[in-house]
Amino acid sequence: MNEDAVSDSGWFRGVDPGDGSSARHAIEHGSAESPAAWPDHAVESGFVDNRSQYYEVLHDVTTAVARTQVREREGTDVQRIIHCVRAMDDVERVANELAERVSAWAGASFDDPGTGIEYAREIADETAADSEDRRGALDARLSSLAAQVRALDDEGQALRDTIERVTPEVAPNVSMLAGPVLAARLIALAGGLETLAKKPSGTVQLLGAEDALFAHLSGRASSPKHGIIYVHEYVSGTAPEHRGTAARALAGKLTIAARIDHYSGDRRPELQAELDERIARIRERGD
Amino acid sequence: MTGTLPTGVERRRFDSNERLATRGQPVYGEPTDGDWRAWDIRRSKLGAMLDRGMETGLSGDETVLYLGAAAGTTVSHVADFAGPTYAVEFAARPVRDLLTVADSRPNLFVLLKDARKPEAYAHVVEPVDVIVQDVATRGQARVANENRRFLKQNGRLLAVVKARSEDVTADPTDVFETFRSQLEGYEILDTERLDPLHDDHLAVVARPTW
Ligand SMILES: C[S@@+](CC[C@H](N)C(=O)[O-])C[C@H]1O[C@@H](n2cnc3c(N)ncnc32)[C@H](O)[C@@H]1O
Asked: Which residues bind S-adenosyl-L-methionine per the record (chain B) (predicted)?
């Protein structure tokens, strides 16, 4: 079959009706300059027996193609979100380290230096531009370093904003329950939405606590009750004696949410209501 | 009211309100009455056009190419009363929901394609009686022009132009004027603004000239 013939014929040309994968390939990658009475052509060429059979086949194939494409695209979206959340952590860590350096250095230059990123932001603009004398030159470097901290801090915020906007599109239910940033972290720790969806809830409960778990298994510590989900208010805000129960309840709902996000994508607001109720009961009565 | 409703679309009472309705599986939480489901004209611009009695030329059972199907709010109703319905949408996220809509509608064919590149679906889509266009993106006239090849001779283009998609700062009236002047190979039969149901949207009924 030559190229010209392909680009001016229906998707079913040269496709064996029993061969789903070549049909899907043709729908996805084929092309034509203009439309034609494809259902009639398909009947005439013997691809199908009649028009209604044609539409049945077309429905199956278009649906299968779109479903695969959606899965694939969402898979790459998830990989990008994982990079984004890791980048955010890198940027915040580096910003904090440099801010400490700025603060220590400022202690040698000025009376009464502050601390942290806020202080670095404050002095980022303060000191004058490069100067000839020794002290001026050093202060200029300090101020420039502080400006780098500010830029990193801004970038960290921009990464966080992006995660907050994008994660709910890919994992609406996990984001609803955990908040978008924790949702992104859980997905990153699991290595993807699909892998998160396939984990038992006991594993989800301990995601991010791998070191503690290892220490426990080698007899050096008691067993951890929660991993990264500790940052969720429903765990950290629950009295210590009920925290394990709260962590288990949250992990259970997150696991269900991840499965819905991966397999169907429906929004299920009732998951939130159920979790709220469950946590209220745990805090009240401990079960 | 001048325009007649296509066969398969009726005005029916839901909780004491007379509303447009079609027969099919519910999709977006709309009220139902037996097989009938209310068509929410606040969420659907085509619904608003029919409700206002615009002469759309729709009679029921036609072949439709729907551009910008999103999650399927409107195209679900179209597939309820029309024949083969080809739904083009280029964003993956809403297509997930659109696939659920298609599961109960054997005449709805979902195509994850870009409406600015008709060659990528002309090998699948047959000539149609009606193009419904609601792409809410820049270059809405170009999309209509590019897709004219799909219209049968006495076919209809039912396009909704969203002013803010072309230019947020411009006066909508100017945007609509530009759209008309950029439309090529069509004769405009009717236009109507859809305010206040859909602010700054212009509904256009046109037919191809040959
Ligand atoms: C206003 S929404 C459509 C709502 C839908 N017609 C309804 O009433 O249910 C516009 C849709 O057009 C889609 N869209 C924009 N540009 C497109 C293009 N070039 N090709 C295909 N779809 C496009 C957007 O992704 C969006 O889902």
From this structure: 73-74, 89-90, 114-115, 134-137
A24 and A98 in a single domain? The answer is no
Say which DSSP state A156 is in.
Answer: H
User: A95: which 2 tokens?
Assistant: 């910003």
Task: Report yes or no on A1 lying in a domain.
Answer: no
- CA B189/CA B103 separation, integer angstroms: 35
Q: Is residue A108 located within the same domain as residue A144?
A: yes
A5 within a domain of the structure (yes/no): no
Maximum CA extent, chain A: 91
Single pTM value for the model: 0.73
Decide which of A139, A170, A201 is a domain's last residue.
A170
Tell me, yes or no, whether A113 and A182 share the same domain.
no
A105 alpha carbon to ligand 1 midpoint, in Å?
Answer: 55
> What is the Cα–Cα distance from B162 to B148, expressed in whole angstroms?
19
Q: Is residue A153 located within the same domain as residue A217?
A: no
C-alpha–C-alpha distance, residues A136 and B209, integer Å: 76
Structural domains of chain B ordered from first start: 41-208 (3.40.50.150)
ipTM for this prediction: 0.95
How does pLDDT run along chain A (287 residues), one tens digit per residue? 444 444 468 999 989 888 888 999 999 999 999 999 999 999 999 999 999 999 999 999 999 999 999 988 888 889 999 999 999 999 999 999 999 999 999 988 777 778 899 999 998 877 555 556 777 788 888 999 999 999 999 999 999 999 999 999 889 999 999 999 999 999 999 999 999 999 999 999 999 988 877 888 888 878 888 899 999 999 999 999 999 999 999 999 999 999 998 887 778 899 999 999 999 999 998 77
- Which CATH number do you get for residue A273? 1.10.246.90
Residues B96, A70: C-beta atoms closer than 8 Å? yes
Of B40, B74, B116, B137, the residue with max ligand 1 atoms within 8 A of its CB, to mutate for a pocket test, comes to B137
CB pairs under 8 A between A and B: 84
Cβ–ligand 1 distance for B74 under 6 Å, the answer yes
Strand, helix or coil for residue B113 = coil
Contact across the interface for B123 and A11, Cβ inside 8 Å: yes
**Is A277 found in the same domain as A178?**
yes
Rg of the Cα trace of chain A?
Answer: 28
Q: Domain tally for chain A?
A: 3
Is the distance from CB of A207 to CB of A188 less than 8 angstroms?
no
